[in-house]
Amino acid sequence: MTGVLITVISTLMLMLGYFLMLYSAVGFIQDKRFFSSAPKENLDAIQDKEERFRGAHAVGWCIALVALLLFIGAFVLAIWDGARNGFGALRFFLRFITMLYAMEIYDILFFDWYLLCHSNFFIHFYPELKGVDRSGFFGYNWKEHIMHFLIYIPVCAVLALGLGVLLW
C-alpha cells in the first residue's frame, strides 16, 4: 500500500509542478516564447506585455523554480521509496509510466479541456483573447499528446532499467 501511496503523492507533485510552471509563465513571466504549444489563434491575438507590476518576472521565475523542484522532488521521492522497498526494473517502470501518463491525462483534461476551453484563466491574463473562439481548441495538440504517450515508454524503460541495474 505504501508503494501506491508514494506513487500517488509523486504524481500529485508532478501535477502541482506542471500547474505552477504554467501559472508562472502565463501570469508573471508573460513571454510569448513559452507559449509555442498554444493554438495559433491565441498566439496571433496575444500582445507582447510589459511586467504586470514591478518584480512580476522575478516572482514568475521563483514560482518556476518551485515547480522545477517539485518535478525533481517527485522523481527523487519515487526513486528513494523504490530503492528502500527493493523495487526491480519492472516496478520502477510501472511507477514512472503511471506518473507520466497521469500527468499527460491531467494536461489533456485540466489544461486543454478546462483551462483553455472552458474557463477564463488565459483571458484573465490576456484580455485580448476575449473575442477568440475557443470552442474548437480541445484536441488541437493531439499529435503532441500521442507523441508524449509513446516517448514515455522508452524513457521510463531506460530509467527503470538503469535503476534496476544500479540497485541490483
Characterization of this structure:
It is a single chain. The protein is an all-alpha fold and 168 residues long. Helices cover 74% and strands 0% of the residues. It has six helices and no strands. Helix 1 (2-29) runs antiparallel to helix 3 (56-84), helix 1 runs parallel beside helix 4 (89-118) and helix 4 runs antiparallel to helix 6 (142-167). The radius of gyration is 18 Å and the shape is elongated. The two termini are 23 Å apart. The mean pLDDT is 86.
The description of the largest β-sheet is: none
Uncertain regions: pLDDT < 50 for 5+ in a row?
none
What series of H and E elements makes up the topology?
A: HHHHHH
Beta strand %: under 5%
What would you report as the Rg, rounded to the nearest angstrom? Answer: 18 Å
Distance between the termini: 23 Å
Q: What is the overall pLDDT average?
A: 86
Helical segment count: 6
Output the structural class.
Answer: mainly alpha
Oligomer: single chain
Could you estimate the helical fraction of the residues in percent?
over 70%
How would you sum up the global shape? elongated
